[in-house]
Amino acid sequence: MMLSGCATMDAGGAAGAPAISATTLQDVVRTLSSDEFEGREPGTPGEEKTVTYIAEAFAAAGLQPGNKGSWYQDVPLAEITASNHEKLRVGDMQFTQGTDWVGVTYREQDRIDLDNAELVFVGYGINAPERDWNDYAGIDMRGKVALILVNDPDYQHEGLDGPFGGRAMTYYGRWTYKFEEAARQGAAGALIVHDTFPASYGWNVVESSWTGPQAHAARGDKGASQTLMNGWVQKGVAERIVAATGGDLAALAAAAQRPGFGAMPLGINVGTGFDNSIRRFQSRNVVGLLPGAERPDEYVLYSGHWDHLGRCTPAPDGDDICNGAIDNATGIAALVALAEANRAAGPAARSQVFLAVTAEESGLLGSEYYGANPVFPLAQTVGGVNMDAIAMAGPARDVTVIGGGKSELDAVLEQALAASGRRITPDAAPEAGYYYRSDHFSLAKRGVPMFYIDGGQDLVNGGTAAGAAWDAAYREKAYHGPKDEYDPNWTWDGVTADVALYYRLGRTLADGTTWPNWYPDDEFRRIRDQSCAASAAGC
Prior knowledge:
Oligomer: single chain
Number of domains: 2
Helix content: 25-40%
CATH superfamily of the largest domain: Zn peptidases
Shape: globular
Structural class: alpha/beta
CATH topology of the largest domain: Aminopeptidase
Largest sheet: 17 strands, mixed
CATH class of the largest domain: Alpha Beta
Number of helices: 14
Radius of gyration: 23 Å
């Protein structure tokens, strides 16, 4: 399928760089967000139309199939829906699913029974050798349930100083890490204590997110390496549990914020059980490649997710298709436009990979599968740029950097911004941990330095007030709803400027010889160093 037109808009590209095609961006967004694609839900007819279209668009842009002659990487998914929850039994107390606690499993088995497992308070549940911090030191968690605090030990700091970055959440503060580490420690279960401020969302978000179908990238062991049960408890429930053991949760939490904290068995047992129904299905990532001219076995990655929510809660007018025009047809359009621009510029020194991933909306599953099963070795992947929901607010004087100050990619960004005349606006909510909530994270947590850059807030037309107004209107009226639709009245100069910036970032890495690393105290530095040490090629 050929993309219509070849008109371009000069987005202020670097000297000698090709302009970014506004026509390509428009065509791809308009097509992928049309009702014909049914909201691009994985495992539906809309997926087949989507991945076929993307592969054809990649081919028309001059890419080669990236996976051993194929455009596709198969992504096996497992969806587990829990039902018939028993009460959560803690000593003589019982707590109700949904109201007091939520629990699921990552194990692909029909029934979960957790019987009389000892409950251990493990503070923030962190094992960070580079920070000389291990909440699990000296305790064997096999057969036990970890009770874990949300966020990092220093989340209450006003600034960004502290053993875990102060107000800025690190990966260690995310629930994903806490469940993963509990599994590594051999725990039978893990319960995170929900608290609205450090979590950055209310219990209603936990309840709605954890009481329906839970999809996962399928594991070879069918989840046997995971805990038997993962879940959350209301803060008031945790306070009651600790009080029943003669303790005080606030005092335990204060102790857990200090170095040298040790896990504390609470002398009380936990039990519950529930049934599971399991649906297994296969989705696909789409992979395109521009081979490098000098070092083709070194790779720079561009990524974006193609999926959205399919059919969803209808709008008042009856529209029930969540089209996902901004989230994330824009990111896929950017992949195609960047492929065209890089093809027009001629081969870079390093190879460039264009990766459209599935099931981001289900929990970064397509990128997680790629990270665990990379088509191109991660130790030979220099770094990358992920694009998720490019704003249609218009050109901005700035860019919002999520996760800045983590890696040597900062210098590449500063160089690119200087060339484009824009400046950095720091993340306004570092405590929310947004760096850990999009597809680049699946690569970052395995050591690959990745950019996460949002559109700016200081708009050329209207300044910061206009930027905040656009963002608020999008979230209120369109985000994850049927009204995230293509608008023929959109102007594209802001998008082309953003995509031109992404071009500079990726092309600088692709034409360079350096291997940017995470800063020494970053949570991903150790992982990257180990990856590099184990590889005879690449970093």
